[in-house]
Amino acid sequence: MVGAGPYGLATAKALRDRGISVRVYGKPMGFWREHMPDGMLLRSGPDWHMDHAGELTFRAFCSDPPDPIPIGLFLDYAAWFQAQAGIEVVEEELTELPDTPFVVAAPGVAYFQHRPEWATDEVHTVDYVDFADASGAEYLIVGGRQSAYETAALLLEHGAARVDVVHRHEPPRFAEASWDFVDEHVQRTLDVPGYWRGLPEAERVAIARRFWEVGRLTLEPWLAPRITDVRVHIGEVMSADGHMTLSDGTRLRPDRIVLATGYRADLSRVPYLPPLATPALDAHMQAVDRPGLYLPGFTATADFGPFFGFVRGAPAAATLVARSIAKG
Question: So what's the pLDDT on residue 173?
């Protein structure tokens, strides 16, 4: 098992529960610990967990969770899950795949940051998690998802003098949003081999649009009172020549530019993975042209749908992989 985030830990437990010996490499919840800021609040609810058996759940760890859930509390849950499941992790960074019949690789999304064409040395939110130097500084944040607005809130709370946010879509709503519709699709992934790829294109587009509406056009209501001083621009960056020129005509000269431009799954960016075909995965999240190599998690979103870019998909992905490896 290469990777010890939610998908790595979930899959390790699912394999161990089937009596399969597992050796796990990586830093436990390394992406979460190193690439998410202190003070971050999660969009997920207490029903999101990592156990395919439904026993070592977040609610089993914390019976009366706060709303929203602080990242630190979820990290405590992950450590508890690992200890309860008896998963030992070798904290070693691999540069190539181990020589073993079965390898499960669940690389963190830090590999997959998306940067606009004009970007040069601007920092991405994945690498900007310490706001100790924010006091008195002016920022431009490019992007309009939760990470953009929460970064804006945290910067203001750390004393930033000014924060501008620019994105192409209309300003998001700040309201309660339900992710319950995800459950049906995750369950069908377990019940119907090749479920996502088997859907008509129009249906995949409609589901992706719903994800857009819930995840990008609607943001958490607890953010709204924290960003009243943020200046929002609808448009895009037209030039970056010392001054930032936006398509609405605004010219800015921020001290720092932060890219909250999301992630795109590109397996070629993971140094220990070999070149892989497209589509990359079969119905069990196994590499089509590399039998024995499984890629659950964010790397599976192109072939299995956007559900697997979230913790909610971890137990199902773990089940698919463990089923296949158990069959040999």
Answer: 92
Give whole-number Cα distances, 101 to 106, 173, 229, 254, 293, in Å. 17, 49, 55, 52, 8
Q: Which comes out higher in pLDDT, residue 118 or 60?
A: 60
Contact 193, 283 (CB under 8 A): yes
SS3 239: strand
* Lowest-pLDDT range of 27-36, 62-71, 270-279: 270-279
Structurally, the chain folds into a number of domains equal to: 2
Can you say whether the dihedral through the CA atoms of 66, 44, 25, 30 is positive or negative?
Answer: negative
Burial bucket for residue 45 (CB in 10 Å: 0-12, 13-18, 19+): middle
308: region left, alpha or beta (phi > 0 left; psi from -120 to 50 alpha):
alpha
Neighbours of 268 (CB within 10 A): 10
Mean pLDDT of the chain: 93
For every residue of 86-103, DSSP letters joined together read T--EE----SS--SSS-E
Q: Among 208, 234, 259, which residue terminates a domain?
A: 259
Q: What is the pTM assigned to this prediction?
A: 0.94
163 beta partners: 139
Q: Which of 277, 273, 270 is nearest to 293 (CA)?
A: 273
Q: Among all chains, which residue has been given the structure tokens 């709303």?
A: 67
State mean pLDDT over 87-109.
93
- CATH code of 163's domain: 3.50.50.60
